[in-house]
Amino acid sequence: MKKVLIVSTSPRAHSNSEALANAFAEGARAAGHEAEVISLRGRTVNFCRGCFVCQEKLRCVIRDDADEICQKALQADVLVFATPIYYYEMSGQLKTLLDRLNPLFPSDYAFRDVYLLTAAAEDEEHVPQRAVSGLEGWVECFERARLAGTVFMGGVTAAGENPEHPALVQAYRMGHEI
Ligand SMILES: Cc1cc2nc3c(=O)[nH]c(=O)nc-3n(C[C@H](O)[C@H](O)[C@H](O)COP(=O)(O)O)c2cc1C
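^ Those are the sequences you sent over. The predicted structure of the assembly is below.
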């Protein structure tokens, strides 16, 4: 049984990338894992101050929702990030959160596998590429971890506009196979 932490970073209710997050969680739960989905909607994630206190104390000086997510991420075996594509990149919300997960860097983190789930209006293969390589950069800093898989839901603009999208099945399967 693995502990799976899934962070959905879209600010929209019924968001497309959040649907991927939920499908991944369902797949993981069906396989007997413990999966928690946390949405950043309505939560407060402040910018990293670059003070480096976290590298000694293993905890951020800012007490907000990122601090709480970081404590959970420390215990998780699997980390999953879901993001809308904004200007051919990951959302600012996700980048801000990744920076705030800096206390994990010197810690004895448990996660080994990291996944990225993305949604965008366009459907071309290249659309999520920069978001994937951005997360690869983050994962590279955690030597015991790897980017284990990605799912892209293309061709969706309005929230929840295609509940039959094949990417949802892909996300479920990926969650099931962790
Ligand atoms: C600020 C902003 C920038 C966007 N940039 C892109 C883009 O570069 N390429 C694209 O295909 N879609 C882009 N979109 C559309 C979203 O990716 C699309 O609506 C997606 O379904 C949102 O995911 P969500 O429902 O999880 O929030 C953008 C949307 C916003 C609000």
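The chain has six helices and five strands. The mean pLDDT is 98.

Shout if you want it in another format.
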